[in-house]
């Protein structure tokens, strides 16, 4: 997994087409009327970012996280979204013409004001954050993992209120059984020594532990 690259973008009325923004931490970036057509934003975090009236034609978003993002009046024509989370996102006037979605989750995000948004039937849409229902053992492992400063700083396992994030737990349990997940999180508490910004890093790391026979 590539190292997280922190890049607070501030583009206005600019052409930034066919660029590679993979693994970028775009936290609190502020861009307006910028053309990102053909760019790759996979494994990037848009936490708290503002990308208003921007053009994302034919862009790729895989394991990308839009958390508290303002996308007002941006266009995502023919873009691809796979394993993406939209949480608390402003989609007012956002155009998704011919965009493709696979395994996308939307939480506390009003989709009524979006344009040409046609989600597959299996798309999970939550009006509010779902309730957390996990064992005490898993809860203990998650809290232990968040004692690691890099995991805590990533904000991938907790909500803005500091509680365990049910969506993150849901995705982790779709990739691992509880026993393996607990072992993996315990190992991450000891081993993680670099910054990252999306849940995909935790999933990739625990899968690597499994390949090494550590789980």
TrEMBL record:
In terms of InterPro entries, this protein maps to:
5peptide_repeat, Pentapeptide-BTB/POZ_domain
Pfam family membership, one: Pentapeptide
**What name appears for this protein in its UniProt entry?**
Pentapeptide repeat protein
The domain of life for this entry's organism is Bacteria
